[in-house]
# Entry
Amino acid sequence: MSVSADRARGTAVVALTESQVNQRRLASRRHGLWAKSAGETGLRHYRSGRLLRRLEDVLAVQGRPLSEDQVPAARSWAELGVIADGVYVALLATFKKGEIPTPKLLDAWRGLQRDRLLHAVALGLTPAAKAELATTLSDLHRAQETRATQERLRAKQVRPAR
# Structure
């Protein structure tokens, strides 16, 4: 609706102060951890994207880059991490006020951490999962070497005599 249409109807157009604009911009952050405003979801996607890129960089440096099959799980892990950070900040705010956090908030944080840990295990990010992955890969490497040796021996046995 344009300003001229507002004046024609007789409604007054009020200019907002800078503090009022900031209040309206930040309102969704103050009134819910799972805010669905475009700004808040955009910020969440940006943060989870940065976390995903950092994870990819770290795993590439370690010599075990993410495969195409692991990317959705890694993205979900990053999104859960961003949401869990928001819940943790809300928990800290209640503790700083000297209040007891609500059971709903504690259950939300506990559930997010549990789900994030499951994703981390699936991606091989925990020490136990990393050790299991290393033994699995070493067993796989050992099996491949054994198979290659057996094929070389068979190739020598099959050669016709001259």
User: Anything to note?
Assistant: The two ends are 95 Å apart (CA to CA). The chain has six helices and no strands. The chain has a mean pLDDT of 80.
